[in-house]
Specification:
Pathway: Glycolipid biosynthesis; glycosylphosphatidylinositol-anchor biosynthesis
Family: Belongs to the PIGG/PIGN/PIGO family. PIGG subfamily.
Function: Ethanolamine phosphate transferase involved in glycosylphosphatidylinositol-anchor biosynthesis. Transfers ethanolamine phosphate to the GPI second mannose.
Number of helices: 33
GO biological process, one term: GPI anchor biosynthetic process
Shape: globular
Structural class: mainly alpha
GO cellular component, one term: endoplasmic reticulum membrane
Number of strands: 8
Radius of gyration: 31 Å
Length: about 900
């Protein structure tokens, strides 16, 4: 029976824990509102207004119609090198009908912020990377902003039509007169998602009622996500896109109403060597950009003929910014430059206007538009000539004063409508580039007070969590040193960009060292052979786990076990996958024995496992058919459910798992509640059911990882059962293995590593909550497995404690949660501190901001929802 003092200590530690965990999401929210603010924008549409003094009306545009074709993830080398399927496009480059560029896509390299940059010419907020995942979100709409789409609509000489990625419909609601959108997240679809676009083209090319046609193809991006840039599907898809380009260009040449049509083909972003995107590697930030029209043959340019040799930097032809599209399209199609544009008119198109005055006017309109942004940001006094004394011009205090000084010098030599020379045009173009670079690199308008407030709340959470842990645990200080060292080392690591990018190595080495420490700490000379064998087996399993997928930034796409052994040998893959399903089948049979008659239990478990296995084979056949050989191919041949859709198959598996989990809880926790072992059986059964769900939501190549996790689990279980694993050691192991499992499956701190391939299993239409849950389970499948495993190990410790002290399990759970909360609160505080201190760092938006988003996912998703929510419920069921 608890004494009053002990009861008070229990209540105190519980309240401290609750307070610490409530403060974590509050700190995250407050910090995020200061770190990811929306930047203020100039309202309304730009207008020509009064003519520029000395220049007259705007120059006549050479084009009046636009076909804008986006090929998602069109990396520059896909178009310009010899190993390319864009043969026809390369022929247009050679004969001068196409002008090629490499466009620079700033991070984050995901679709929504890239489309914002392309259409407005501005630099989107990093928060758009989150909104990009929510197809139902409309807060990111550009309906009220000035874009070249809004300008083309305002011209009133034709309709706007769009076919393809429905991100355009979300960004521009009510803008398009005809549209057919397709979701961008069914990444296993390589064909239908593009066929749905292509089927409209022939008819629309015959219509003359439109002035803007937007096409956005997704198949190439999906192939990249599934098989990488060297996928066998990649070249055929490129040839398909090239054929569509040929169809459109041929129509422009032959159809009279298309004679003044500008055809632009571009990628919204590129991809890295693993086929993903979102970060800032050279491949991800280097999409192709090609302008096409028979009229371009009148512009002579001396450029190397396509194809070009491979280049690891992916910089082919001239490099421009994606934001340069907005002012360039404005000049070529005859409308004002959008108000919030930071792009610079691409000078290669100036020869369209023979008069130097016309060229100068186009540049001046671009300049005045950017000067309006500078004035809005820093006040009109920065451009006031009276403030630009000779001394300030010679020694400007700020970059913006220097920019203003340079502009005063350039504008004073323009001679107000008199003939300007090539030197003035070159100087003005250079000034535009400098202004673009300076304004684009301008620090975000952080709300520093919110940053510090969020930081203070996070530190308060750390203090409360440590106090709760101190009150809950009754261990010596020395036993806490490894845990404290891990938390401290992790926090320090957050301040170095290279360590953040390659975080997996911290967890890999720490886990290996920790498991070796546990082995030698409890080494028993009486069982030296079995102990040594167990240690060697476990450390070997961890080494294989570490090498399964190459992740991080520097070596993404490099050789690993999957690329070197699994992909080239599909039979080995299915041998390991089959072994994994057989192991789960055996574990489920063992855990439900006695609950059902033996023949019925075999029938139910076998049916559930076979349904999951056949779904995974059918999914892989659609996703990567080159892997479905031998054993897997024979499964498809005898599959009784062949003909059923993947959605139906997945729903069958999910419903089967849900019914099995519900039945296990009802039977073992209530019907057999009087049996002392019923709680343990319940958790073991639920752990096996979850494992079947986890491999259903994992990439096929990652399924064998769960066999390796089981080896490590058995190692820890044997030590917990014999009393050689303390609570602090269990919690430390749980944290280490959760992070190790996440990175081993291919996760990283880059947005590009988010796996969406299983996010739509069982879903026919987009539903943000369902897709969010499935995406989380897909990416954190291994981490959640270790939550289940940790609860099982806690129950083992509880049995040992009851046998020795006769105590309940509340203290164990509270101590475990306290340790997990200490680490989570410390990690949140460290990441916030790093983002605050390094907010002007070069890599703030490419390294530290994505890390903050992952920190949010770990803290809110894995810690609060899974470790505390699911883990607490499981422990209660196991009592």
């Amino acid at each position: 029976m608890k004494t009053p003092r002990r009861r008070d200590a229990t209540i105190s530690s519980t309240l401290l824990l609750i307070a610490a965990n409530v403060l974590i999401p509050i700190a995250i929210l407050i910090f995020a509102t200061g770190f990811f603010p929306y930047k203020p924008l100039l309202p309304g549409l730009a207008e020509y207004g009064t003519p520029l003094a000395g220049y007259g009306d705007p120059p006549k545009a050479p084009f009046d119609r636009l076909v804008f074709m986006v090929i998602d993830a069109l990396r520059s080398d896909f178009v310009y090198t010899a190993n390319s399927g864009f043969g026809y496009t390369q022929s247009l480059i050679r004969n001068g009908a196409a002008i090629p560029f490499t466009a620079h896509a700033t991070s984050p390299t995901v679709t929504m912020p890239r489309l914002k940059a392309i259409t407005t010419g501005s630099i989107p907020s990093f928060l758009d990377v989150v909104l990009n995942l929510d197809e139902g979100d409309e807060s990111s709409s550009l309906a009220s902003q000035d874009t070249w789409l809004a300008q083309m609509k305002a011209k009133g000489n034709g309709k706007l039509i769009m076919y393809g990625d429905d991100t355009w419909l979300k960004l521009f609601p009510g803008t398009f007169d005809r549209a057919d959108g397709t979701t961008s997240f069914f990444v296993s679809d390589f064909t239908q998602v593009d066929d749905n676009v292509t089927r409209h083209i022939a008819d629309e090319l015959k219509n003359d009622d439109w002035n803007t046609m937007v096409l956005h193809y997704l198949g190439l991006d999906h192939i990249g996500h599934k098989g990488g840039p060297r996928s066998p599907h990649m070249i055929p898809k490129q040839r398909e896109m090239d054929t569509i380009i040929e169809q459109i260009y041929t129509a422009i040449e032959s159809e009279p109403h298309l004679g003044s049509t500008l055809f632009v083909v571009c990628g919204d972003h590129g991809m890295n060597d693993a086929g993903n995107h979102g970060a800032s590697s050279a491949g991800e930030t280097s999409p192709a950009l090609v302008f096409m029209s028979p009229k371009l043959q009148t512009l002579w340019r001396s450029i190397p003929p396509a194809p070009l040799p491979e280049d690891e930097s992916f910089q082919f032809y001239d490099r421009v910014e994606q934001s340069d599209l907005a002012p360039t399209l404005a000049a070529l199609l005859g409308f004002p430059v959008p108000k919030n544009n930071l792009g610079a008119l691409i000078p290669e198109f100036l020869p369209f206007w023979a008069s130097k005055n016309d060229q100068a006017q186009l540049l001046l309109r671009n300049v005045h538009q950017i000067l309006d942004i500078i004035t809005a940001a820093f006040g009109s006094q920065i451009l006031d000539a009276s403030n630009l004394t000779p001394d300030r011009c010679a020694h400007p205090k700020t970059d913006y004063q220097g920019l203003a000084s340079e502009w005063q010098d350039i504008s004073s030599s323009s001679a107000n409508g008199d003939e300007v020379d090539s030197e003035w045009i070159a100087r003005t173009t250079k000034w535009l580039r400098k202004a673009q670079s300076l304004m684009s690199g301008m620090a975000s308008n952080y709300d520093v007070s919110r940053l510090f407030l969020g930081q203070a709340i996070a530190i308060m959470s750390v203090i409360l969590a440590i106090s709760a842990a101190y009150t809950s645990l009754h261990s010596s200080a020395s036993s806490s040193l490894p845990f404290a060292g891990m938390a401290l080392a992790y926090g320090i690591m957050m301040f170095a960009s290279s360590y953040v990018e390659e975080e997996q190595h911290f967890w890999y080495w720490a886990t290996t060292a920790w498991l070796a420490f546990l082995s030698f700490k409890s080494f028993d000379s009486k069982t030296s052979i079995s102990s040594s064998l167990s240690t060697v087996t476990t450390l070997t399993a961890v080494r294989v786990i570490r090498g399964w997928n190459q992740t991080g930034q520097k070596f993404a796409g490099s050789s690993d076990i999957v690329k070197r052994f699994i992909y080239p040998h599909p039979s080995l893959l299915w041998l390991l996958v089959g072994a994994t399903y057989l192991w789960i089948h055996r574990e489920l049979i063992y855990s439900v024995r006695g609950a059902l008659p033996t023949p019925l239990s075999y029938a139910v478990v076998s049916g559930l496992v076979l349904a999951a296995l056949t779904f995974k084979v059918a999914f892989t056949n659609e996703d990567a058919p080159e892997l479905v050989t031998g054993f897997a191919a024979r499964i498809l041949e005898v599959d009784l459910a062949r003909g059923a859709s993947l959605v139906t198959r997945a729903r069958t598996v999910f419903w089967g798992l849900a019914i099995a989990a519900f039945g296990a809880v009802i039977y073992f926790s209530f019907y057999l509640s009087r049996r002392t072992a019923s709680g343990t059986i319940t958790i073991t059964t639920l752990q096996n059911i979850y494992t079947l769900l986890a491999i259903t939501q994992s990439r096929t190549t990652n399924i064998p990882l769960f066999l390796l996790y089981n080896i490590v689990y058995r190692f820890l279980h044997s030590r917990a059962k014999t009393g050689r694993l303390s609570l602090i050691e269990l919690s430390t192991s749980s944290l280490l293995l959760q992070f190790t499992a996440f990175f081993a499956a291919g996760g990283s701190n880059a947005i590009s590593s988010v796996d969406l391939s299983n996010a739509y299993n069982g879903i026919a239409d987009y539903h943000v909550l369902a897709v969010g849950v499935l995406t989380f389970v897909s990416n954190w499948a291994g981490a959640v497995y270790w939550t289940f495993a940790s609860v099982s190990l806690l129950l083992v410790l509880l049995r040992n404690q009851k046998q020795t002290k006769g105590e309940g399990g509340g203290g164990l759970l509270r101590g475990h949660i306290a340790l997990l909360t200490v680490f989570t609160a410390c990690s949140v505080a460290a990441v916030m501190a790093a983002c605050t201190v390094l907010r002007t760092h070069l890599f703030i938006w490419t390294v530290f901001s994505p890390k903050y988003l992952y920190c949010v996912a770990w803290s809110l998703g894995q810690h609060l929802l899974v470790n505390l929510g699911v883990g607490g419920l499981l422990f209660w069921l196991g009592l």
